[in-house]
Amino acid sequence: MRRRTIAIWIAAGLVVGIQLIPVNRFNPPVEEALELPPEVAEIVRTSCYDCHSHETRWPWYSYVAPASWLVARDVREAREHLNLSVWNQYDAEERAENFEEMWEEVEDGEMPLWFYTPLHPGAKLTDEERAALRDWLGAGQGGSGPEDDRVGEEDGPTAEAG
């Protein structure tokens, strides 16, 4: 009985002690986010932003070790792979690749991650949401991406004048 009590106290001490290990839950400022049409913005904000942006909402379990370590690691890796808050840092080729990869991940059911949706049921994509993403992301295939809606803004004057 005495050994069991000691083991319980040691385990409790370890659980409390690991809470003191610092975890980076910093949300840097958004530089320039990807501009999204309203029908897509809510889908992406709900299903993607917690990991792929600087607008992460850190849930209660992200403050409890060891879950906090896993959440912080997943967010860090997701931001390294695709960060919608620094969209301005991607060149046209990277943007096109990101749009293609976004759809592939959604189409294959890889995103949102299977272990994210049970705790965030609103992030699970419906068939309608997947179709909206497909239509929006598909608009960028072979071009510079869904921001093609703004063609002409950056092109400047045309040679037809005169």
Features:
162 residues, mainly alpha, elongated
List the helices and strands and how they pair.
Blueprint: H1 2-18, H2 38-47, H3 49-52, H4 67-81, H5 92-107, H6 127-138
Helix pairs in contact: 5-6
Provide structural commentary.
Helix content is 46%, strand content 0%. The protein has 162 residues and is mostly helical. It has one domain. Helix 5 runs antiparallel to helix 6. The C terminus is likely disordered.
Give a quick precis of the structure.
The C terminus is likely disordered. The chain has 6 helices and no strands.
**From the alpha-carbon coordinates, what is the Rg to the nearest angstrom?**
21 Å
What composes the largest sheet? none
Calculate the terminal CA-CA distance, rounded to whole Å: 97 Å
Which of globular, elongated, flat, extended, rod-shaped describes the shape? Answer: elongated
Tally of DSSP β-strands? 0
Overall domain count: 1
